[in-house]
Amino acid sequence: MGILNVTPDSFSDGGRFGDVDAAVRRAEEMIGEGALIIDIGGESTRPGSKRVDEQVEIDRVVPVIEAIASRFDIPVSIDTSKSKVAEAAVAAGAEIINDISGLRFDERIAEVSAVTNAGLVLMHSRGEFDEMHSQPAVEDIVTEITEGFERSIDLATRAGVSADAIVLDIGVGFGKTLEQNLELLAKLDRIRDTFREYPFLIGASRKSFIGKLLDGAPPEHRLSGSLAAAVVAVMNGARIIRAHDVKATVEAIKVTNAIISQS
Fold first, then answer.
1. Is the pTM of this model over 0.90?
2. With the CA atoms of 173, 175, 180 and 183 taken in that order, what torsion angle do they form, in degrees rounded to the nearest 10?
């Protein structure tokens, strides 16, 4: 899953792909590098970011989704936690809704998924939007994740979302300490065993915990750490990797899968 942020303030590539032509060129580049899904976001969720009006978010993402969906035969995902944005995005051609709140911010996203048959990524996070990155640490993060998934899945299925439309995401970097991010990646296979019905998506690319481990490396210098996290995630059962650096990530996963096939 290639990341395409059409925001002015994303932590890694804010402002680079704000116009439709630039976004389409970037999507084409990622597809050429091996991306199988393009994930489009119109609202930054970096630490310190503020919510944007839903119409602003719609105006940012819909023209890009329409352009990409009309040019390329590849699933488009909308990264949003607002049901009206999700609705507009799916109408424009998106096939997947990627909700960082796991339906906590807007339960109606599940209805949009159910009615349109769009896939639904349920990510674990904690706290309201402005507080997601400043939550006090919980003692048992695996239990917290498990209980959070159970609530999100229950909301989705009660709204009519089919089980085969749901993907789970542990939410690396959202309300977790550095040690907890590492623990979740290390124990992903155990969490996956609890929810074997659902594929797992992991988005660790260029996250701040990698920068901390690499002596304060800025986002653009976190490739090696991002690849290490992706490899561990795949070895522990992840089925989708959300990444900025598509070519390098695809190559790393190709080698990882070749090794796994011989185990």
1. yes
2. -60
CATH code, 78: 3.20.20.20
Closest CA to 120 of 139, 141, 106: 106
Give phi and psi for 11, each to the nearest 5. -65, -25
167-212 residue pLDDT tens: 999 999 998 999 999 999 999 999 999 999 999 999 999 999 999 9
* Phi and psi based region of residue 53 (left: phi greater than 0; alpha: psi -120 to 50; beta: remaining): beta
Please list the active-site residues.
207, 242
Report which of 93, 236, 113, 225 is spatially closest to residue 164, judged by C-alpha positions.
113
For residue 123, the enclosing domain spans: 2-127+139-260
- Gyration radius of the chain over CA positions: 17
* 52: Cα within 13 Å, side-chain hemisphere: 21
- Per-residue pLDDT at 15 exceeds 60: no
